Amino acid sequence: MRKSRLFFLVAALALLSCFQIQARAQYEQPTVAPNSTLANVRYDYRWEVYGGFAYSHFNAGPDLVQGSNLGGFDIQAARFFTPRWAIAASGRGYYGTSGVAPNPYGIKGPFVSEHMFLAGPEYRGPSNTHVSMLFHALVGGAYGSFTSRLQDQQGNPVPPANVGFFSDGTTFASAIGGSLDLNRSPRLVFRISPDATLTNFGSAGIHEQFALSVGLVYRLGEGFHKPRKRK
To answer: The whole model's pTM is what?
Structure first.
């Protein structure tokens, strides 16, 4: 009896071993190739061009309690003279509606817009194959349009000061901030760019606003360390 039990135990163990060997033979661990997408990331391209969606919190008047949340675009180009230093230029447009001061004209939430044209130095900070940080201080001008929808119920134009707005016009502007670049390939980058924007509409002193854009960067141009072909 004991011998038969021992025989069945040995047979069961042998059968289990066969199943394990067969299972190992049928399944092999897949070989995963290392991700080389970012292996060739470098920071010696001469140009970076950027386009993205933009947001700005903006006050269309000096004393408005309710500001405006504007959406639009941000287009930038940077020419690098070293791997870290560049001259950048930016064109931005912001569009939306704004709160107004209490008024007897029935005006609520009129359309406003702002366009900015800026340029200045840009510096590349800490960087690796995955991420890069840049800092810039851009200066230039801004044009604000605040009166295009200021009309009373009879269609007569309303002076912008009567609803707490600035007058249309051009003024000094600046954007101080930077960007966080997330590399998707050696040339293609996803960018998040926050800024403090400064304007001086209406000679009411410098007004600081918040702006943010997200979009894509493309790097191009011959690298600094790439030898030039001899003619």
So the answer is: 0.79
